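Why should sequence recovery work at all? Because a backbone constrains its sequence more than one might expect. Tight turns favour small or flexible residues, buried strands favour hydrophobic ones, and helices have their own preferences. The token representation captures these environments compactly. In the example below, the structure is given first.
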């Protein structure tokens, strides 16, 4: 059962800033080894992660996704590998002193579609997702829309214990795909972050 929370529109300027790419040349970052799940308790506690979350279909109108975003199931656009460079990550410090990372990017979707974004079970100790103002961090986000077909978006992104090539399951109606996202480090055949990136 999904818990419903309202999404906030935010300002268009803030949303665009989250999607803007830096101008420096790509660089490849070697992925670090994964931390044991037992060391990630501070990360999950700091973010107060909820398992499932349903957002209202409310966002800032856009002219459509950037060219290097992938449109999945004709419903949602994501910065997936290999077309989009790995996202930059910024380091954060949890209250217990452990470090985690934020990869910011807007969520862009069509208002005549419904979909779910799901962090796989084996990555839930390492990754959380969140879009839209005060909405909590989650491991699964659902959007159920029935309006006219137009592209809208919300600011947010991905929180991880360390930079890595992450999987994300995308479901819409009876379709399901797993895409890859370079978070602070590239996936196979993907360019590295397009600017300074922690980790």
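From this structural description, the recovered sequence reads:
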């Amino acid at each position: 059962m999904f818990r419903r929370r309202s999404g906030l529109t935010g300002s268009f300027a803030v949303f665009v800033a989250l999607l803007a790419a830096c101008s420096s040349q790509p660089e490849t970052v070697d992925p670090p080894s994964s931390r044991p799940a037992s060391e990630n308790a501070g990360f999950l506690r700091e973010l107060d992660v909820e398992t499932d979350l349903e957002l209202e279909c409310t966002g800032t109108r856009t002219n459509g996704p950037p060219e290097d975003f992938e449109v999945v199931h004709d419903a949602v656009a994501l910065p997936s590998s290999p077309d989009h460079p790995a996202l930059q990550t910024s380091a954060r410090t949890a209250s217990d002193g452990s470090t985690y990372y934020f990869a910011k990017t807007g969520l862009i979707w069509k208002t005549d579609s419904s979909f779910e974004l799901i962090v796989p079970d084996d990555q839930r100790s390492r990754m959380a997702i969140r879009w839209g103002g005060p909405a909590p961090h989650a491991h699964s986000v659902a959007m159920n829309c029935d309006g006219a077909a137009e592209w809208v978006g919300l600011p947010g992104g991905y929180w991880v214990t360390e930079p890595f090539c992450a999987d994300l399951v995308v479901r819409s109606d009876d379709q399901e795909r797993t895409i890859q996202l370079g978070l602070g480090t590239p996936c196979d055949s993907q360019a590295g972050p397009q600017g300074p990136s922690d980790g």
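A few observations help interpret the result. The helical segments are 12-19, 41-47.
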